[in-house]
Design a protein that fits this description.
Helix content: 25-40%
Radius of gyration: 23 Å
Strand order of the largest sheet: 4-3-2-1-5-6
Strand content: 15-25%
Structural class: alpha+beta
Distance between the termini: 55 Å
Amino acid sequence: MGTNDRTAELAGILSDEHTAALITSPVSMRYLCGWDCEDGFLLLTKSECFCIVSGLYFSQARELAQGCTVVRMDDVGGELLDMLFRYDIRYIAAEADHITAARLAAYRETLNYTEVHASQTLSEAISAMRMIKSREETELVAAAQKIADRAFERALGRIRNGMTEKHVAAMLACSLYECGAEDTAGRIIAASGKNSACPCAIPTDRAISSGDFLVLDFGAKYGGYCARMARTLAVGQVSHAQEEAYNAVYCAGHDALKALRSGVNAKVADSVARSTLNAWGADKYFIHGLGSGVGMEPRELPELSQTSTATLRAGMIVSVGPAVYVAEKYGVRIKSMAEITEKGCNILSETTTNLIRI
């Protein structure tokens, strides 16, 4: 019960038997032991993984946490210090990207027997492990994507001219739950008209109307894994310029997906998408990276952007979302999910990328 394959792999970065890793992120906890708790944490040594929780979560942790020894601690300060003495732990590495300065200071004061440091090495090691998905993980992401596809189809049949963006977003959220999502994967964007030109638009009381583009960017979570997608709808008759912008984004996404395969630098697909947009005279309107990894979080490594230094590997799952944003006028975004393979990629999104008119 003391370790599993993932915790054993992570323990490999620990320098010696006097060093331990402190895992405080709920996402990292779930990845490493299959269960997460905001009121608990993992303590990983060279040979053992402890899931430490209060009495409130002890029974649940014993049932759900895998490959670790569950320890009840109602007085974390004193009891944890006793455990560190018992196992002669003198150095603790905490996740640098998930521990606050206040919490780090509190650990240092309480666990004065040990040195506690925020470790970028630990954070990077966990991120690197999570980038390559197992077959089971891929199946969970694919299941989340199917839920998103079904929810989109269901919501599509309900969207009407005159509905507000807030109404559309709420309806899409409801559809996700109706189709089996355990939660939404990130917030839902429903942006119409000039609001669609904002990449991070927040749904408003604006009513969608004829001539609008309506950008829907949303996702589903299932079994702890996420899938996101984006589609742009034409409300009634749109202009020739809008149609051209849509075609440019459509072609950029198509070409970028063809560029994905194991062994290719992660920035290549971004470059391909920009080159295609440039051919349409629209590259100056693409103001963010092409996409990123997707897994237990809707946005994780690797980044698909011009600054990425990562190399794509079989088993990675990424989002590919080229876009065009014409300020104060309209925006277009088409985002799909793809699994990287040795010879190319498997597209997980089933919803058409052709322009849908409502």
